[in-house]
Design goal:
By secondary structure, the protein is an alpha/beta fold. It is 48% helix and 18% strand. It contains 16 helices and twelve strands. Helix 7 links the parallel strand 7 and strand 8. Helix 1 (32-40) packs across helix 12 (233-252), helix 12 (233-252) packs across helix 13 and helix 13 packs across helix 14 (272-279). The longest helix has 20 residues, at 233-252.
Amino acid sequence: MALAAGTVAGLRPGFAQGTTLRVGYVPVIGASALFVLAGDGSTREAGFDLKLSKFDSGPNAIQAFASGTIDILAVGVAPVAVARARGLDASVVSAAAIGGTAFMAGPALARAFAETGNDPAKVFAAFRVATGRKAKLGTLPPGGVPTVALHHWLWKIGRVDRADVEIVNMGIEVVQQAMLTGAIDGGTLLEPSATLVSERDPRIRRIVNSTDMFPNIPGVVIAASGKLIKSRPDLVERFVGLLHRATEQLRNEPAKAAPLVLAALGGGLVAEDTIARALISPAVTFVTDPARIREATQELLAYQVELGDFAKSPALDGLFDQGLYERGVKTAGR
C-alpha cells in the first residue's frame, strides 16, 4: 500500500495524496459493490484510489493475500476462515452478498428434469439410464462456496446416488465455457454467468439457486489484512462506508449500477442488459452486515469438515470485525 506524505485540497483530512488500496477479487456478481466503487469516483473523492487485481478462484486469491501483495480481498468466506486458521492475519470487515450461484442444466439434463420432475435423485438416475453414463457436472475447486452448495444440494437435499454423477473442478470462466460448448451436462455458475449462458443458449435451464441449495449461504465477503486494520483503521472504515453506500445503490438502482459492474465483469463480451438482469437475479442478495451471515458461515464450515475440505471447523472468533463494520457504516452518512 502506497502512502505518500502531505495532503492536498479536496482530499479527506488525514488521507495522504497517493494513498492506494490494493484489492483482489473474483469476477462474480457478489462483488458488485466493489466494482461500483472502482468506477464511480467516490474513493478518489474520499482521498484514496483502488488498484484491482482479478483472480479465477478463492484459493488463488488467498495465496496473493497471504503474500502481502493485496490489502483487501473480495472472495468467499470459507477460504478466508481457513486461511485465518492457518495463521493469516485478516478479518472480514463487511459482507457483500448472500448466494450468487445457480445450478444450470445443459439441454439433455434439462430434458431429464422436465420429464422426471424436480427430484434430483430421480433425475440423475434417469439421466444415467437414458445416456448410459454419469452426468458430468462442473464446479469450482474444492473449498469454494459454490462447490459446497452443490455437494449439499446433491447429497443432503437431493439424496442423489453418487454413482450417478461425476464432478469436475475448474475455474469460474471455464465452467461457463464448458456449459456453452456442451463439455459438461450441468454446473454451478456464478452470476452473471448463470444469466449469460441461458441467454446465449435457451436450452440451458436454471434448476436451483444457491440459497435453496444451502439456506442463506454466504457469498462474497470483504476481508482486510490485519496489517492494514492496525495501521489505517480510518482508511478501512471509510472504505467500508463507501461499500455500504454502493450496496444500497445496487439494491435500489441496479440499472444505474449496471454500467459500472459491466466495466469489471463484461470483458467486452457481455451486454449491459445482461448485467442488469444478473443484479436482480434471485440467486443473489446484496448485504453488508457480517451479522447477517455469521450463523450460516458456522453451518457452512461445519459441512465442509464433513466434506473433508479441512479436518476441523475454523473458529469464528475474530473472523468478523463487527465493530469496524459498524463504525464504517456510520461514516457513510457523513
